[in-house]
Amino acid sequence: MSIEFRGVSKRFADGTLAVEDFSLVVPSRSITVLVGSSGCGKTTLLRMINRMVEPTAGSILIDDADISEESPVALRRRIGYVMQNSGLLPHRKVIDNVATVPLLNGVPKKQAQSAALTLLDTVGLDRSLADRYPSQLSGGQQQRVGVARGLAANPNILLMDEPFGAVDPIVRAELQTETLRLQRELDKTVVFVTHDIDEAFLLGDQVVILQKGGRIAQQGSPAEILAAPADDFVAEFVGADRGRRVLSIQQVDGVDILVDGDGRPAGRLGGSATGRRITETARIDETKAGARTASGAPAQGERAS
Ligand SMILES: Nc1ncnc2c1ncn2[C@@H]1O[C@H](COP(=O)(O)OP(=O)(O)OP(=O)(O)O)[C@@H](O)[C@H]1O
User: Fold this and answer.
1) Candidate from 10, 11, 19, 42 with most ligand 1 atoms within 8 A of CB, to mutate
2) In this structure, which of 73, 119, 226, 294 has its CB flanked by the most CB atoms within 10 Å?
3) Which ligand 1 atom is at minimum distance from the Cα of 19?
4) Which backbone phi and psi does 161 adopt, to 5 degrees?
C-alpha cells in the first residue's frame, strides 16, 4: 500500500507549526525512513498517517483514498504502530499484549492467542516468554514484543517511531537486522522514524532527511544521498564531510550491508522488497590524510569480502 502526503501542514493549538507544506510519496512494500534532529516533525508526520494527529492543511492518501474519510479507529486497527519503549501494557502478559488489536477487531480469544504465539516466533522470541509481564523482559525483548504487537492485525502498513532508540548498540544492531528480515518476509510498507542517520541508511529503501518544520532537505536511496548530498546541511548530517564514510560491504543474513570505516552500518545493497538493486558507481576519493572515503556505494569491483 502506498502512502502519499499532499501539501500537509500541522499547526498545534499553541501555535507551533510542526510541519509545513509537506509532500512525499511512500512507495508500497518498501521501507521509507524519516530522519532528522529532534523537533523537526518526524513523529507528527508519522502520527498523521494513522490520524493520531490531524493535519491542519493538505491531505494524506493511502492507495489513493483520502484517510480523512475513514474512521480513525478503523484506520488505526489496520495500521501497525511500534513506538519507542515498546508501549506495552505493563499489567498484561506478553501474549495478551500481542493479541490486543486482533481481540479488539473481534478475533476469538483462542485464535488471537495462537496467532500471537506464531508472531513471537516471527520476531525471534521464545514462546516460553508468552506468560511473562513486560517488566520481566529485557529492553530488546520488549521491543520485539512491540514489533509483534504492531504486526498482530496483519497490517499492510507498519509505522515505527524510534523503536530501537532505548536499547544498547548491540541489541539495536540485532533488531535492525531483524527488521530487514521481517520486511523481506512480510512485504509491508514501513515508515520508520529515527534521528540516527546510520540507522536510516541501513534500513531505508528511501531515506528522507528532514529539517525543522518537516522541510525535506533531501530524499533518495542511501547511495543517491551519499553520492550527491544536496547541500552542506545534508553533507554534514550524513558525515560525508568528516571523511567517516569509508564504505565496504559485509553480508548480514544474506543481505549486503554497507558499513563505514568505524564498522557502523551505512546502507544496504539490493534484496529490497521493491527489487531495487543499487548499481551506482562509487567515487572513491583520497582525502588529504590518506583515508579513503566513498561518496557513494562502492562499484561492483570495490566489493570487500
Ligand atoms: N501536542 C503538541 N502541542 C504543541 N507542540 C507540539 C505538540 N507535539 C509536538 N509539538 C511540537 O512540534 C514540533 C515537532 O515535534 P515532533 O514530535 O513531530 O518532532 P520529532 O522530529 O519527532 O522530535 P523528536 O525526535 O524529539 O521526537 C516540535 O517543535 C514540538 O515541540
Assistant:
1) 42
2) 226
3) 14
4) -105, 100
Task: Please give the ipTM for the structure prediction.
Answer: 0.97
Question: Atom 28 in ligand 1: which residue has the minimum CA distance?
Answer: 39
- Whether the pLDDT of residue 247 is over 90: the answer is no
The stretch 139-144 carries a mean pLDDT of 92
| Structural domain includes residue 271 | no
Instruction: Give residue-wise pLDDT tens across range 156-195.
Output: 999 999 998 878 888 888 889 889 988 888 889 999 999 9
Asked whether residue 294 is assigned to any structural domain, the reply reads no
CATH number of residue 65's parent domain: 3.40.50.300
pLDDT tens, position by position, 213-238: 999 999 999 988 988 899 999 998 98
Cα 251 to Cα 32, 52, 64, 258, 305: the distances in Å are 22, 38, 37, 9, 8
Residue 165 C-alpha from the chain's centroid? 12
pLDDT computed for residue 280 by the predictor: 31
106 belongs to a structural domain: no
Asked if residue 86 is part of any domain, the answer here is: no
Using a 6 Å cutoff on CB, does residue 40 contact ligand 1?
Answer: yes
Structural domain of 182: 3-78+156-239
Span 64-92, pLDDT tens digits: 999 999 999 989 888 999 988 778 999 99
Closest C-alpha to ligand 1, atom 26 = 38
Q: Does residue 297 register a pLDDT over 60?
A: no
Number of domains in the chain: 1
